[in-house]
Amino acid sequence: MASDSGPVVTRFAPSPTGFLHIGGARTALFNWLYARHHGGRALLRIEDTDRKRSTPEAIDAILDGLAWLGLEWDGDVVFQSERGARHVEVAEQLLVAGHAYKCYATPEELEEMRAAQRAAKQPLRYDGRWRDRDPADAPLGAPYVLRLRTPAEGETVIEDRVQGRVTVRNEELDDYILLRADGTPTYMLAVVVDDHDMGVTHVIRGDDHLNNAFRQLPIYRAMGWAEPVYAHIPLIHGSDGAKLSKRHGALGAETYRDEFGILPEALFNYLLRLGWGHGDREEITREEAIALFDLEGVGKSPSRFDLKKLQNLNGHYIREADDARLAKLVAHRIGTHADEALLARAMPVLKTRARDLDELAEGAAFLFKSRPLTLTDKARALLDDDARAILAQVADHLRAEKNWTIEPLEATTKALADELGLGLGKLAQPMRAALTGTTTSPGIFDVLVLLGREEALARIDAQATPASRG
Q: Which residue ranges does the UniProt annotation give for the motif 'KMSKS' region (predicted)?
C-alpha cells in the first residue's frame, strides 16, 4: 500500500515534444515545493522515448524554463530513452512470473475486434484472446507483443491526496501492451520502472493521468514494489472556463519571459496560487511557499488562468525588484545603446506603474532618443504656437537654474507658471512633449533630472519658438 513514511522523493517528467507550457510548469513547481517543504528530493526525468517527436531544442527549452523559474533539481537529469534495457528486463521478469503473456493477435484481428465492439457500442479494449492461450498455437516465428495480465475481478482503490478515494472496477482495465512487437517498451511500463528505480514516493501530476494510475498499479503489485502516494491535480482552464488553449495563455514559460516581460518570481507566485491557496494571501515569496506548501491546500476544481492577474502580480514584483537588475533586463530589451547606469537611476520613477518589462522599456525609451525627436501625433498636437512660445520662456528660466535637481527645477517652473497666470499643467504638457516626444512619462521634473541639463535644454530649445525670446 502507498505510504507517507520515509523521505519524500518527487519527480517532474515532461515529454520534450515542445516548450515548458504553463500546466507543466505548475506541475514542476508543485513537485519541487512538496519535496522542499518535506526536506526531500525533487528529481527531473525527461521522457524522450518518442524519438520522432522529441527534439534537443525542446529539451533545452524545458531545462531553460525550469532554471529561469529557479527550480533546481536533485541529482542528474534522467533520460528515459537511455533506460530501455532496464524496462525490457522488468517486462521479462513479469513474463517469467506469469504476470505478463505473449499476444500474437495480428493488426487485422485487433481491428476486427474493435469494429465489433464499436458496432455493439461496447468500450474499446483488448478482449484477452491470448491471455490463457498456449503460445504454441501461434505460427512459428510470428510477431508478438507482451501484455500485462491485469486483475480480472474485484476493484482497485486509490486514496488520492487531492481527488480523495477513487475506485475502478478491474474489469474495466484491459491487458495493455508492455513491449511492442519490435521489443520496445511502452510508456506505461517505462514510467513505473523509472519511478521505482528513482525511488519516487509521491507522484504529483495532472488529473488527466488519473486513469493511468489504475493501469500502472498492477505492475507495482506484480513486482512487489512499494506503491507511490498519488496526487492528481485538476487541470488549468482559461478565464472563460474552457479548456486552456493558446488564446488563453497556454504558452511556453519562455514566451512569458521574452515576449510578455514577466519576472520569474511573478510567474512562480502566480502558478503557486493557481490551484493552491493559503487563506487570502496572494503575494507569497519563494521561502514562504516552501514553508507553507502542502497537498491539502490543492483544490479539487480546475483553476482559471487570467493573464491580467498575472500582469498585475508582475507589477508588484517589478516594484519590489532591485533597480540594477531591472536596468539590465530592460537594457537588453532596448538594445545596445541603452545605458544601464542611467536606467538604474531612472528605475525608481519608471517602475511605479509598469506591469511588465516591455512597459518599463517603453517608459525608458525617451532617455535614449536622439535629436530631433520624433513626436507622436498627440505630442505634436500639444505643441501649437502658444505652447512653443511658452517653451522658449521655460528654457530661459531653466537655463538660469544653477542647481539641476528636482526641488529647484520644480520651484523655478512653478514660479514661471504663476508669472504667466497659468496652471503648472499648461507648462508641463508641452515640456513633456518636447522632452520625450510623447504625452506620457514619469514626472516632468524627474525627466529633466534624468536627461541632464544639457540634453533637456537642447530638447526644449528644439521645439521652442526662437522669436518669442525678443
A: 243-247
Q: Enter the C-alpha cell of residue 99.
A: 504476470
pTM of the predicted protein model: 0.90
Collapsed DSSP state (helix, strand, coil) of residue 237: strand
* pLDDT tens per residue, range 291-301: 999 999 999 99
Tell me which residue of 2, 13, 25 sits closest to 195, measured CA to CA.
Answer: 13
Cell of 3: 505510504
- Provide the 3-class DSSP secondary structure of residue 296: helix
Active site residues: 246
Cell, residue 37: 517543504
Confirm or deny that 246 is annotated as ligand binding.
yes
Lookup result for grid cell 514661471: 416
What are the φ/ψ torsions at residue 21 (nearest 5 degrees)?
A: -80, 170
Q: Is the pLDDT of residue 213 over 70?
A: yes
Residue 468 pLDDT > 90: no
Sequence-ordered list of residues with C-beta below 8 angstroms from that of 114, at least 6 positions apart, any chain = 124
CB-based contact 200:11 (threshold 8 Å): yes
Burial 454-464, CB ≥16 within 10 A → b, else e: eebbebbbebb
**% of the chain surpassing 70 pLDDT:** 96
Helix axes 444-451, 424-436, angle to 10 degrees: 40
Domain range 84-188, its CATH number among 3.40.50.300, 3.90.800.10, 3.40.190.10, 2.60.120.1440:
3.90.800.10
Instruction: Look at domain 253-320 and name its CATH class.
Output: mainly alpha
CB 316 within 8 A of CB 301: no
Instruction: Find where cell 533597480 sits.
Output: 323
The grid coordinates of residue 182 equal: 519490435
The CA distances from residue 413 to 81, 398, 401, 451, in Å, are: 70, 8, 10, 17
Torsion angles phi and psi, residue 259, rounded to 5:
-100, -35
Question: CA-CA distance, 69 to 352, in Å (whole number)?
Answer: 24
Q: Is 146 helix (H, G, I), strand (E, B) or coil?
A: strand
Q: What is the dihedral of CA 55, 57, 62, 65, to 10 degrees?
A: -170
Q: Is 364 helix (H, G, I), strand (E, B) or coil?
A: helix
Annotated domain spans of the chain: 9-74+193-235, 84-188, 253-320, 323-368, 377-469
pLDDT, average across residues 412-432:
94
Residue located via cell numbers 504529483: 204
pLDDT digits (tens, 9 = 90+) for 394-410: 999 999 999 999 999 99
Q: Helix crossing, 357-364 with 340-350: angle to 10°?
A: 110
Q: Which of 3.30.230.70, 3.40.50.1100, 3.40.50.620, 3.40.50.300 is the CATH number of 9-74+193-235?
A: 3.40.50.620
CB 47 within 8 A of CB 13: yes
